[in-house]
Amino acid sequence: MSDVNELLEEAIKETENLNEGEVFLVKDLFKGYVWNRIPRKDRLLLGTLFLNYVNKMEGNIKAIEKTSSNQQRYQKV
Fold it and tell me: Closest Cα to residue 11, out of 37, 33, 34, 39?
């Protein structure tokens, strides 16, 4: 499977396809079967790296609340 940095780049690139105001999870940026093939430890790391990216960059993505299952939600602004 791809290395986590490649997955991060893919996720960041995929955010360009979102509409303004859309709310999403990192897993929404991947096709279901692709997400399911990523090992759990890599998915957790990817989530952490994506959150760090969003918090550091002055971009059009912001972190909002977490879901009941403790997944970070994001919104394109």
Answer: 34
Short-list 58, 75, 55, CA closest to 26: 75
pLDDT single digits (tens) 9-56: 999 999 999 999 999 999 999 998 999 999 999 999 999 999 999 999
Residue tagged 């079967």 (tokens): 33
d(CA 77, CA 74): 10
Give the Cα separation of 13 and 25 in Å (integer): 14
What the block records as the tokens of 41 is 């430890």
- Count other C-beta atoms under 10 Å from residue 22's C-beta: 13
